[in-house]
Amino acid sequence: MTRAVLGPATSQTPDGSAAVPQDLGTPGGDRPPRLSVVVPTRDEAENVSLLIDRLVPLVAPLDAEILVVDDSDDDTPAVLARAALDAPLPVRLLHRPAHARTGGLSGAVLLGAGHARGDWILVMDADLQHPPTTAAMLAAVAMRHDVDVVIGTRYAGNGSREGLDGPAREVTSSWATRLVKSLFPRRLATVSDPMSGLFAVRRDALRLDRMNPVGFKVLLELLVRHPAARVAEVAYEMAARHAGQSKASLREGMTFLRHLFRLRGQRLIGQIRTGPRALRERLRELGRLVAFGLVGLSGMVVNTAVLWFCYEPAQLHHLLGAAVATQVSTSWNFLLVDNLIYRRTRRAGLPARAVRFFLLNNVLLLLRLPVLQALVWAGVGVLAANAVTLGALFLLRFLVNDRVIYTADERGRRDPVRMLVAVDGTETVPTPSRRRYQYLKYRYDVAGVVTIGSQIRLPELEFFRAQWVAGADVDIAVRVADVGGRGPQRRAAMTQYAEQSVLRYEEQLGRLGANFRIQLGSPIDIHVGPLLARSPHVVYTNVIEALLRFVMVSRGHMLLHSACVTLDGVGVMLSALTDTGKTATVLRLLRDHGGLFLSDDMTIVRPDGVALCFPKPLTISAHTLRAVQAQDLTPQEWRRLQIQSRLHSKGGRSLALALARFNLPIMGINALTQLLVPPPKYSVDRLVPCRMGTSTRVEELFVIERGAPGISDLDPTETLERMIDNTDDAYGFPPFRYLAPSITIDGQGYTQLREREREILAAFLSTVRGRVVSSDCFGWADEIPRLLREERGELRRAAVPSPVWPRWDAHLAGAGGAV
Ligand code: GDD
Ligand code: MN
Question: Which comes out higher in pLDDT, residue 171 or 466?
Answer without folding.
Answer: 466
